[in-house]
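Request: When convenient, would you put together a sequence paired with its structure tokens?
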Amino acid sequence: MKVVLVDDEYMILRGLPKLIALTDLDLTVEMTFQNPLEALEYLRKNHVDILISDMNMLEMKGPEFLQKVNQIQPGIALIVLSGYADFEYVKAGIQQGAIDYLRKPVDPDELKETLEVAIKKVTKQQQNQTNANMAKGVRLRELLTLEKAYQKENLLANLGLQTTDSMYLLAVLNPIPVELLLDHLENIPEVCGCFKEKRDVLFLFVGKRSRLNQFLHELPVKVSPLYRPVIVSSKMDDPALLFRAYGEIMAEIGRQYFFESSHGLTMLEEGKVTQIMAVIPKFSKLKEAIAQLKDVEDFKQWLNLQLNDLKKQHVTVALVRQYALLVALALRESSIRYSLTAPENVAVINSAKTIGEIEAVLANVQIDGTRGVVKRYSFNITRVLEIIEKDYSQPLTLIDIADKLHLNSVYLGALFKQEVGASFAKYLNEWRIAQAIELLQKTDEDINQIAVQVGYQNSSYFFRIFKQHTKMSPKEYRAMTNTARKMG
């Protein structure tokens, strides 16, 4: 716990820290002051657990000083001392909530007993405050997630919010250590509730913009905008806006993680709300640009520039995914061979948690489309793959193919998985979905008819398998490719 000493006698300030050290208590003397006015200024900017102060100082009398201390930090534990056996000083100390009154020179045993009482008081207060803050955080989270105004009345009253208050919702992404931020927020009177949302901390700041700027400037170094991403909502004067602000904050958190932001301050009120649309090059221009790239390294550099440009435009994650799918589509059209991994690539793009994952999969698509390397299989597995390629639209089972090849189906299944790296059923589904992707991309045929053409008699099952492999429905994939055509 943090201790501050105030006494106009230099020898007291020099000797008392040594006595405190001898108590073997977990206490740190943060500062010592001979001038009570300087001590008050320090208390206005720094949290202190225990204050030990003289009651008879030239610049300010003890009773007045203790009163101001209590106004600045109401929960502080006070211990007063004086060389005067004056009942008025004892009375004044008691009135200001002092734990004890110690005579100079201070007796070490008496000091230790008094500090132990102070520690218990502070510990209890901190626990009570922690419980209160947790309860307030629960109420705040509930308030932010309720859309209807009539559901919020009791929560607003419990949080002490007025309809005229200026409010800002803030988020600090993955603060390290999180305890440093939480401890700091507990001592900020303008913070009206905070809670953890997975690895992030969200809280409501109630106060003027000038005070908010000061608060951001005074954040602990390790969680400041220079070190951890901090997001600030637009100003709100109506609690009804909290629900929308929470949605915007959560969307921005997702965007920040997707773009792998490591630091920085995002003020949503300054026009940095995520855009639904952005300037994306025409599909034909995209294909031309890719065709001019010499090798994989050229492609990676080009792609990195394109994605960084989208990031600067503050676009949504969904738009980046759509752009990546268009790049994959352009790569496949310029490819010298057809890739069976198309469903897998679409799935990775649609489920990627970071932009780095998207860059990696597109680089693999580029490599896969240009190297033209065909893996060699044993005679029997080559025959199985030929049958799948020829008859995938028909009902196919491993047992039927094994009978045709005069092989044991269990043996053939194990050999297939060993050489191909996937089970027969998985490979067959992937092949069929890859053909469906081709048809959705190049034809306007009805989706139900496409399902039959690629070997699915049950269209509902086809929709489920397609989404399982690509993380999007056949209709969504076709809409994406149609968009590319129109942009052509």
DSSP finds 21 helices and ten strands in the chain. The domain at 2-124 is CATH 3.40.50.2300 (Rossmann fold).
